[in-house]
Amino acid sequence: MVVQKVAFYDDKHDHDAVRNRQHCLFSRCHVVTGTSIFLTIYLIGTFLKALFFLLFFLHGLFLLVLPAAVVICTYFGIKTENHKYFWPFIAISIFHIIISIAAGAMFTYIAIFLPKYLLMVLNLVRGRMDQDVNDGYIVCSVLFLSFLVIFSLYNYWQLRVVLSCKKYYKAKSELVSFSNSTSEPQALNVNYLLNDDMGKRPTM
C-alpha cells in the first residue's frame, strides 16, 4: 500500500520554528543552499591556494589533498542527499576554529610579553630596523588579531549551517525510511522532519 504523507503544522508558531531551523543566512535561504554557498566559497579559496602554490611553491600542492577531499565529499553529499558525507566539512570547520583560537592566544602572548620577536618579523617584511614598539607594530598586531577573530566567527557560522544541513538530510532520510516501512496511511507532522535533533535555536 502506498503511504500517504501529509505534512501539517499545529499552529503558526510551529510553522515559524520549523522554517527557522530549515533556513539560514538570517532566514533568507534554505540550509542546503547555505551549505552550497559556503562550499563554493571554500572551493574558491582552495583554487586560489592552488594558484599560489603553482606560482611560488610547487611542492605545497600536496597540502590541497585534504581541501579537495572536503569539496568532493560535501558536493557528493548534497547531490545524493547523504548526511554522512558532510563530516569532512564539519571537521575542517572545527579545525579552523581551534587553530584560530590557538593562534590568537599565542600571538597575543608574544605581542605583549615578547614583542622583539614580532618586531624582527615586521622588520624583515617592511625592510626596516625598528627596535621599539611603534604605531606600525600596534596596527599590524590589531589587524592580524582581527583577521583571526573574523575567520573563527566565519567558520563557526559555517559549522552551524553545515550541521543543520546534515541534520536536515538525516531527518529526511529517517522520515523516508519510516514512510516506506509503514503499511497504513499516515499523517506525518512536518515537525518530525526537524525535531529536537535540529536544536531549539534558529540557524543564522
TrEMBL record:
The keyword Transmembrane helix applies. The chain crosses the membrane at residues 25-44, 50-78, 85-114, 136-157. Keywords: Membrane, Transmembrane, Transmembrane helix. This is Uncharacterized protein. It comes from Plectus sambesii.
